[in-house]
Fold this sequence. Notes:
- The chain is α/β, with parallel strands linked by helices.
- The chain has one domain: Rossmann fold (3-Layer(aba) Sandwich), CATH 3.40.50.720.
- Helix content is 44%, strand content 13%.
- It has a seven-stranded parallel β-sheet, with helices on both faces.
- The longest helix has 25 residues, at 106-130.
Amino acid sequence: MIKSLxxxxxxxxxxxxxxxxxISLALAEEGVNVIVHYSLSSVEAADICAQIAGRGLKAWTIxxxxxxxxxxxxxxxxxxxxxxxxxxxxxxxxIFSTDTIDDIDFTTLSRxxxxxxxxPFLLMREFAHLTxxxxxxxxxxxxxxxxxxxxxxxxxxxxxxxxxxxxxxxxAPAVSVNAxxxxxxxxPIGKDESYLDHLAQNLPLNRHGELEDITAAVxxxxxxxxxxxxxxxxxxGRHLLEEENGQNFDQxxxxxxxxxxxxxxxxxxxxxxxxxxxxx
Length: 280
């Protein structure tokens, strides 16, 4: 059954910038009152709230440092104290640092696991203990494989993926737990759209996505009350290449993503079998 979101209250972590900002505003378009979480972006969070309030809805900012246990452990209770109740949790906030197998260290790994996996799980658990409703997490398409240039990051997302599946079972039927796994949507900070255009040439759909693709998927998961434990891949088919080529695919090379279609064409022309490809 497809349900209306009008009048619901949502908490969006990291809700003031990039994907989180787009989700906050998309929820408001559906008549949802939004609590915009931030760590350092107080000005941006206040601006988003002003935009939402300008639409005749309620909006609040709430601060929490996800490296401070007291602040994140009390976040759900503090959010509910602001609004009276809570219907939706969007786990969007994360960190994204560069490291490899050769230089990964325990401190960096622990920080990523804490912010990207432990805190979202704890928020889901606290949400389930105090209320009922829907949780949507933001993952990454590379949970189908590895990210050789951001090892701590992708390991933390793998862990969150497993916690999502476990939480979906544990917290049902009062709480649904789903996720969206974006691929090429926004360029990294310091890059422009040409960066996405270059990589998108090798995707099955041959283009990168837009923020609207993510927000549409999030809204779909929130409106459908017969889904839990699901991950929607918004990546132009990127995860299919990962599955086809194996998890050693694209081992951190600066070259564009290896094209499964190119490999199959070469195999047909040479008469060779379509063997798994291992990038160097």
